[in-house]
Structure formats: structure tokens, C-alpha cells
Amino acid sequence: MASMTAGFTAARVGTAGFTAAGLGPAGSSGCSSGTTMTDGDILVRGCTWHGDGGQSSHDWSEEEEKRKRKFSPQPPPPLYRRLLLRRRWLALLSFSLWSPLIKAIHITSDPIGRSNKMRLVGLTGGIASGKSTVSNLFKASGIPVVDADIVARNVVQKGTGGWKKIVEVFGNDVLLETGEIDRARLGQIVFSDPEKRQVLNRLLAPHISSGIFWEILKLWIKGCKVIVLDIPLLFETKMDQWTHPVIVVWVNEETQIERLMSRDGCSEEQARDRIDAQLALDWKKSEADIVINNSGTLDETKEQFQEVLRKVSGPLTWKERLRSRDGLFSIVACTAVGLLLAQKNLL
Ligand SMILES: CC(C)(COP(=O)(O)OP(=O)(O)OC[C@H]1O[C@@H](n2cnc3c(N)ncnc32)[C@H](O)[C@@H]1O)[C@@H](O)C(=O)NCCC(=O)NCCS
Ligand SMILES: Nc1ncnc2c1ncn2[C@@H]1O[C@H](COP(=O)(O)OP(=O)(O)OP(=O)(O)O)[C@@H](O)[C@H]1O
Predict the structure, then answer these.
(1) Which spans in 44-111 are helix H?
(2) Domain closes at, from 220, 243, 278
(3) Which of 111, 186, 198, 324 is the most buried (most CB within 10 A)?
């Protein structure tokens, strides 16, 4: 192709009988030469070059040639090659990926490791097994706790959506004179009747989960790096999949019943009903990442807690880093900068 410059994008008319886009079938070009095209001939916008080293039937000016290159009839390369050929995309991608990596290296080199964390720790157990006792230790160590029992109380306050649903289903019998929910009464009903308990759970589940979500969001916005979720029904509601590690506060059954009866002033039967309303504590223990045995004294629990605190404050996984507010911010910021540079053709 004597008359073609290197890299000229034109198709060699071969067995496929390739045709320049929009110009009709090969051989029917608008070119006035009227030459029949054979294997090895080249077609550009209806003009044919002969592959025999001869002169072209037209003398194209350089500008025209450049313009014509835009209308390349060559089949496009596969998508991955086209993307690879685009320097800008590559640069942008690496910019976005490397920024959190650099940040991660910085965090790993931080001996305290406190600079960038978003760890959702699940704290659960059985009723009266000592979750609140352990969550108070977390709070005292400066780690914020989202307490599902408190959220569950807030979503049934007088006039709220949860309150309306309870009144609709359980009637005015479960209301105090003030109009607030009579928790003791409702507790008696639902802990002695699994079906009614399920109804209550279904009514409140969306309110409780969105309440928990907002609490986490508020702490995340504040930049909290480790958040403990104290949820009695963590496994029952399958929320354990969102938390890691899962800490189970375990006690032997005898101690659990004793503490429950003494705290709530209930009978042994009532205590057993409440315990039976949840998955077995021994099973929860078998599913835990970390177990705190709270059957002994408070000091013994505090001792175990120190080790738990050390684990929970340990180096973060990649997922945790990317989930942090700072991690997300750095990805967004670097992508924005990358886009800006790409737009200005600086990459
Ligand atoms: C039944 C209610 C009114 C009893 O109130 P009360 O003030 O007596 O108990 P409190 O809310 O403090 O709960 C004490 C403990 O009971 C256990 N518990 C509470 N609700 C449930 C339930 N639906 N199923 C099994 N155990 C439960 C938890 O271990 C909890 O820590 C109240 O617990 C409630 O509204 N429960 C439904 C909401 C819920 O599922 N809460 C758990 C949060 S995940
Ligand atoms: N190690 C301990 N020694 C003695 N008493 C304890 C110990 N741990 C907890 N208790 C007591 O046992 C009771 C239950 O503890 P706690 O309220 O922490 O349990 P919980 O799991 O949060 O209960 P719930 O499921 O009802 O929310 C409380 O009265 C608490 O003071």
C-alpha cells in the first residue's frame, strides 16, 4: 500500500468482503475509478487503493487523509483493549484505588491504629446474661454503643408509628393511663405466647432496624471508628451478618435465671419463658467470634473485657477501612480530582 501512511485505518478487502461504513457493499463505491476490488485492495470512504504497490487513483492532501482516518472502517478492537488503550481511564482507576491503599499504609504504621476505623462489633447474648454490663465497659472505654433495647423503647413512644401499630393490634389494654405502652403488661402477653410475640416482632422490626440504622449513621457521620451494636436478638434477626466480630456474653443457665429473677422481680416460670423466647445461649456461644463468660464476678468479666478491647481495637481489615467515613471520603475525593485532571487532559 504505497500511498498509505503507517497506521492508516482502512480495511483490507479480504474474504470477509468488508465494507466501509455507510458506503454500500464492497465494490460499489462512489469512487469513479470503477475498478473491481480484489483481495488485498483497500477501501477508504469509497476510494480504492490497490495493494500491488501501484499509485492510488486519488491524490489525497494530508489534511484530508487525517480527516478520513476518523471514518475508519476497521472493526473495533474488543472492549477491554479499547479501555486499556485509554490512558485516562487507567490513570483514573489507579488514582481511585491507590488513594485508600496509601491511607491504609498510613493507618498500619499508626501504632495505636485509631486513625481510621469503621468496625461494627456485634454484642449479644441471652436475656440477663450481662450485655448491658459489658456494653457499659465499652462506653467507659470511649467506644460508642447502639443499644437495640433503647431503640425499641423509642420507637413505641406515644404517638409514634410503632405505638399506633401496637394499639391497633393489641388494643387499649396494653396502655397505661398516660397513653404510654404498659411494657410489663405487653411483656406478660408476648413472653407467654409465641404467636403474639411473633406478631409484635413483625410489627416493630422495620421501626427497630431503621432506628438502629440512623443511630449508626449519626455515629458514622461523627467519624466514630468502632461502634458496638448491643442487640439481644442479633442472631434471631440475622443482623450478625453485618457485624464483626460477634461477641456473645454467656452465663450458665442457673446464674441467668437467678439474675433475671432478682433484677426483674419475676417468678422462675416467667424467667424461663423469657429465656425460651430466644435462641439457646449455648448455640449463640458456638457461633461467636469472641465469648465473654459472665458467670463469675464482675472483676472476672472486666479482666476478660481487657482482652476483648484489645482485639476490637486491632488493625482493620480492608473492608472496614473502605467502610469508614474517611475511607469513603478519600475515594470520592480522589475520584473527583482524577475526573477533573482527566477532563483537563492532564492525565
Ligand atoms: C416485650 C416488651 C414490651 C417488654 O418490655 P420490658 O421493658 O419488660 O423489657 P425490655 O424491653 O427491657 O427487654 C428486656 C430483654 O427482653 C428480651 N426481649 C425483648 N423483646 C424480645 C423479643 N421480642 N423476643 C425475645 N426476647 C426479647 C431481650 O433480651 C431484652 O434485652 C419489649 O421488650 C418489647 O417491646 N419487645 C419487642 C421489641 C424487641 O424485639 N426488642 C428487642 C430488641 S432487638
Ligand atoms: N458478673 C456479674 N456478677 C453479678 N451480677 C451481674 C454480673 N453481670 C451482670 N449482673 C447483673 O445481672 C443482671 C443482668 O445483667 P445485664 O442487665 O447486664 O444483662 P443484659 O444481658 O443486658 O439483660 P437484658 O437482656 O435484659 O437486656 C443485672 O442486674 C446485673 O447487675
Answers:
(1) 62-69, 79-85, 87-108
(2) 220
(3) 324
